[in-house]
Amino acid sequence: MAARVLAADVNPHPSSPFTASRRRRPGDAALPVPLRVTPRTPRRPEKPTRIICRAAELQGSSSGARRREPLRRGAVSARLPVPDHIPRPPYVGTDAIPDVCPDRQVHDSESIMRMLDACELAARVLQHAGTLVKPSVTTDEIDRAVHQMIIDASAYPSPLGYGGFPKSVCTSVNECTCHGIPDSRELQDGDIINIDVTVYLNGYHGDTSRTYLCGDVDESTKQLVKVTEECMMRGISACRHGTSFKEIGQRISEHASKYGYSIDPFVGHGVGRIFHCEPIILSTYDYEPGFMVAGQTFTIEPTLSMGSTQCVLWDDGWTAVAVDGSLSAQFEHTVLVTRDGVEILTGCP
């Protein structure tokens, strides 16, 4: 689940309770407005009707491209219960959005094993959720299956109750860039869906996501999904002890630019005992100051778009949707920095 930090191209809905404060140092006063991470890469003119990406031009001119109906929200069912014996993260019970913790978590051998347990469970749950993606299945059904598998493992679904988020998993379909809330909408043939799973097990969070194809998907959309996964892996390949964090965004940006894709403004984050903490991991040439340290864990989760990076936030306070209706894809792994390189903790078991 991407950190609850707004970037420059996300416009909150006028009635949204989206009020995440910037990351604060001790003694700083909270700001009443969201953090805006201003990209260093050149800003594109944001006109919703204009195709600004070579990939989008290809999709628009292709005879095989299909017309899609704009994404519409369905009915959101009640929160699912969690047995009392399962430990909750500290934020559960309040609708306040937690600040991004300024501490960078570095693990010893014992906490690395606990991280690995949480991440392996998250990977298994995501793998199962992916098998459910097919036309006519609702995202609410996927949420129910994810929720049940997590609590059956005596773990807690981390998104549930985080800042008031009402579900156990994020499901972002088509032009939904991030933080989609599962509902009664049925998946359609040709859709793509990002499923973002985070579990809280034995005091640690494991976080992972991938974008799945639903039914018969056109070739330009398949390419978007393929390149997004490649971008994530290129970002991961930059990781090792002593490397600057900027290397991650540089490698992702270089690969995405070859295909003309835009990089959406959501970020990765440190993860461990705390769901969202520093370092903030950007997927552009912008970078978080500092260098990687062996024993650190964080997520790398690039989101690529066929069109504009400008999003509007629905009045549920979470669902971010591309203003021009362009498709987005995202992939995410939790990684552990080592002396010799990096270990993917959320790889399929």
Account of the 3D structure:
The chain has 349 residues and is an alpha+beta fold. It has one domain (10-15, 98-344): Creatinase/methionine aminopeptidase superfamily (Creatine Amidinohydrolase). It is 22% helix and 19% strand. It has five helices and 16 strands. The strands form five sheets. Strands 1-12-13-4 form a four-stranded mixed sheet, with no helix packed on it. Strands 2, 3, 5 and 6 form a four-stranded antiparallel sheet that branches. A hairpin with a 6-residue loop joins β12 and β13 (320-322). The two termini are 20 Å apart.
Layout of secondary structure:
Layout: E1 10-11, H1 54-61, H2 109-131, H3 139-152, E2 156-157, E3 170-173, E4 176-178, E5 192-201, E6 204-213, H4 219-237, H5 246-258, E7 262-263, E8 268-270, E9 277-281, E10 297-300, E11 303-305, E12 311-313, E13 320-322, E14 328-330, E15 333-337, E16 342-344
Helix pairs in contact: 2-3, 4-5
The sequence of SSEs as H and E is EHHHEEEEEHHEEEEEEEEEE
What name does the CATH topology carry? Creatine Amidinohydrolase
Annotated CATH architecture: Alpha-Beta Complex
Number of beta-strand segments: 16
- Give the terminus-to-terminus CA distance: 20 Å
Instruction: Please report which band the strand proportion falls in: under 5%, 5-15%, 15-25%, 25-35%, 35-45% or over 45%.
Output: 15-25%
Q: Report the mean per-residue pLDDT as an integer.
A: 84
Shape: globular
What characteristics describe this protein?
349 residues, Creatine Amidinohydrolase, four-stranded mixed sheet, four-stranded antiparallel sheet, 5 helices, hydrolase
